[in-house]
Amino acid sequence: MPSATLSRKEVSKHDSEEDLWVIVDHKVYDLTDFVDAHPGGSVVLTQVAGQDATSAFYNLHRHEILQQYSKLCLGVLDNETPEVIDPQPGDLSQVPYAEPLWLAPQFAQFTNQYYNASHRRLQKAMRVFVEVHVTPEAKEKEKDGTFISQGLIDKMAEANILAMRLGPGKHLHGRKILGGGVVEGEEFDYFHDLIVSQELTRHGQRGFQDGNMAGMTISLTAVKQWLNNEELRDRITEEVLSGKKKMSLAITEAFAGSDVAGLRTTAEVSDDGQHYIINGTKKWITNGMFSDYFVTGCKTKKGFSVILVPKTEEVEVKLIKTSYSTAAATTYIQFNNVKVPRDHLL
User: Fold this and answer.
1) In the sheet that 27-30 helps form, which strands lie side by side, from edge to edge?
2) Nearest to 182 by CA among 220, 127, 104
3) Are 241 and 171 in contact (CB under 8 A)?
4) Strand ranges in 155-292 using DSSP code E only, listed in sequence order
5) What was the pLDDT predicted at 110?
6) Could you give the CA distance from residue 31 to residue 20 in angstroms, rounded to a whole number?
7) Is 130 helix (H, G, I), strand (E, B) or coil?
8) In whole angstroms, what is the distance from residue 257 CA to residue 32 CA?
9) Residue 162: which of 243, 218, 227 has the closest Cα?
10) Using CA of residue 60, residue 64, residue 68, residue 73, what is the dihedral sign?
11) Contact by Cβ (8 Å): 93, 103
């Protein structure tokens, strides 16, 4: 923030649309070049031009708006001090009960049987990461409906956030989490897992929340647990956790939502006995638009089977516009004689 000090008398001279200053929380902002871009129109701003607009501003906006437009701040009023807390990445909320009680300062002195120092370090590091890297993109993608960027996926992969989203397990052993010194992969437990999930959703953008690799968390877990081909399982796990490949769970159909036993997608053994030939459709598949693999529920002669299906020309995907943002990449999928090796069976 600029260190200049200004008087209220000086601010009052800038009271027109062509030269518009306002005061918010003892700080002076030059909104002259912002008038035309203001979502509420120019009239709202001209009504408070040259004046203290603190009450008017906080009646309509969250404080974070000022942080987004901090470059418009000219300085602070002479002999006055801002009163509103300016939250920084990683800060805990000062609003009562806005944080889990185990994070409240008044309880920090007590021994907790569930949360230890590593949980506190992870919470702090995750919050900083989300506020710096995830939240800005989440708001942008929720607004324009586009999908998560490869750049953010790469950052999460490098910090091993993608790996943490699968929960505790050997896949985390030896990994350097969030730059190291936060939590060892070998000690990662379900309370660490809970913290990761909670912090990743703090941006409040519902569509992007699902668009942020939610499909991976419910499909790669199945691959790790039930794909018997060890070489294939390990290769795909590393591809996905490195962010190079994406994955989603393809179970639901228009014909069978929660009634999984009623699905109609079929998988028949090929004439040479080495492949499955898959035909059918899936609907409402989260992240399907950018997935390279689909963990797909099928009907076989033996009943119900789940097969790992790589994306090929025979797999056609179409975007579904749901009641929330298309940033979730919700998808309608058609499988047209898709040929998949039999060792892709889970």
Assistant:
1) 4-6, 73-77, 27-30, 19-24, 15-16
2) 127
3) yes
4) 247-250, 266-269, 275-285
5) 78
6) 5
7) helix
8) 54
9) 243
10) positive
11) no
Q: Find, among 324, 250, 253, the residue nearest to 289 by Cα.
A: 250
Per-residue pLDDT, averaged over 8-29, amounts to 96
CA distances from 94 to 56, 90, 97, 158, 243 (A): 22, 12, 9, 31, 35
Band (106; pLDDT cuts 50, 70, 90) = confident
Hey, which residues does 268 pair with through a beta bridge? Answer: 277
- Residue 118 is inside which H or E element, if any? helix 117-129
User: Which residues sit opposite 177 in a β-bridge?
Assistant: none
Question: What integer best gives the mean pLDDT of the chain?
Answer: 94
Give buried/exposed letters for 157-171 (b at 16+ CB in 10 A, else e). Answer: bebbbbbbbbbbeeb
pLDDT tens figures, 161-182: 999 999 999 999 999 999 999 9
Angle between helices 117-129 and 190-200 (to 10 degrees): 20
Q: For residue 308, which phi and psi values (nearest 5 degrees)?
A: -80, 115
Considering only CA atoms, which of 201, 189, 186, 200 is closest in space to residue 125? Answer: 200
What's the pLDDT tens digit per position in 242-261? 999 999 999 999 988 778 88
Q: Other CB atoms closer than 10 Å to residue 130's CB: what's the count?
A: 21
Condensed to tens digits (0 to 9), the pLDDT of residues 185-211 reads 999 999 999 999 999 999 999 999 999
- Quote the pTM value: 0.86
| Contact (CB, 8 A) for 150 and 219 | no
What confidence tens digit (pLDDT) does each residue in 36-58 have?
999 888 999 999 999 999 999 99
Tokens of 16: 């027109």
Phi/psi for 166 (5° steps) reads -90, 0
- Give the tens place of pLDDT for each residue, 262-299: 999 999 999 999 999 999 999 999 999 999 999 999 99
Is pLDDT above 90 for 109? no
Can you state the percent helix, strand and coil of the chain, rounding each to 5? Answer: 40, 20, 40
8 A C-beta contact, residue 191 and residue 126 = no
